[in-house]
Amino acid sequence: MKKSIYYIMVISLTVLTMAIMGPVAYATENDNPLISNENPLEGEKIEILFLDGDNTVVKEPLVYNQIIYIVDRLGNVLKEYSVRHNTTIAMPELEKETGWTFKNWKTYYKGRAFFLEPVYRIDLTIQDSEGNSITKLTCDLGHTVRVVDKHHKELMKVSYNVPTTVRIPAPPTKSGYVFDRWETENKQDEFLMRPLYSVLIYFTDAENILLFDVKFKPGEQYYILDKDKYVIETYTVGETEAIALVPDEIDGLQFYNWCSFMYENEFYVYPSYGEPLEGKQKPPIATHAGKVNLTIKEDEIDSSSYVDEDNGIMYINGVALPIALITWGIPIVIVGIAAIIIIIVKKRKKSKIGGF
Fold this sequence. Notes:
Elements: H1 2-21, E1 35-36, E2 45-52, E3 55-63, E4 67-71, E5 77-82, E6 87-90, E7 100-110, E8 113-127, E9 133-140, E10 143-148, E11 154-160, E12 164-167, E13 177-186, E14 190-204, E15 210-216, E16 221-225, E17 231-236, E18 241-244, E19 254-263, E20 266-274, E21 292-294, E22 306-308, E23 313-316, E24 319-322, E25 332-335, E26 338-341
Parallel strand pairs: 2-6, 4-8, 8-12, 10-14, 14-18, 16-20
Antiparallel strand pairs: 1-7, 2-3, 4-5, 7-8, 8-9, 10-11, 13-14, 14-15, 15-21, 16-17, 19-20, 22-23, 23-24, 25-26
């Protein structure tokens, strides 16, 4: 009698456990030993077709009386079936959720039951540190967003399983480098972001006084010419550095200023010479390419400086500058009715400034 009661208690506990867990209280394949990709039941199989409209999304041989559960991404049962004979089953329409994109159906066995569960991809919105949108991507759950610096040192690494907005850190900054944009690469399991920079080359006079600086892409070339515009020096841009411009002394001629121009997307610097000037005579206007950020000494602004608004040109000490290319800052000096922003000159070394 005690033995019979013992068996009844075991059966009752088993039923009670199943009732408490329910068919939807399952874990993933990786953390639940009851989940399998193989049918645990023996016997004659009945082929079941699971259809989405006219398309077969799953074809599975199941055993008579085997239970089928179609669940949503949270494990809630959408449909429940019992295998009786060769049949087709129409897949239920899934509720659309913002940020979730249906990918496919995954199948697995849990205990004696056969499960179909939707697999989704998620939408991620990538923003910079100030909240400006950089890009949007749709990726698998667990996708990683990884941000590195220009040397591939990791700045951020986070994996995501729900749609969200990802705000990345600001790119590192250093004098002599100008942030351009984020380089992105969407790999199988991660979205990689790396900052790209332009390089500033500083052109100084013989006394290390900054004349102007120019922004280049790494690998670009620029050229120093003689007065007849023959190339005497060729440079390839790598790291930021200062280049001292020292004009040759030419008998009977006076050095006026350094000029620049662009030709076939390449940058050239050359010296301007002319007849020796007398008294308060001034050299001709120095012309510069659009890439130049010209620096002018605060105490060298003269009364001849003015703005030609009709042509969009500002003349400062005989140098013609397109207004659209001027970098504004402080202090402000008023010339006539135009406000001209002057950038105070700083001394820089001739030697290489250093990497970043």
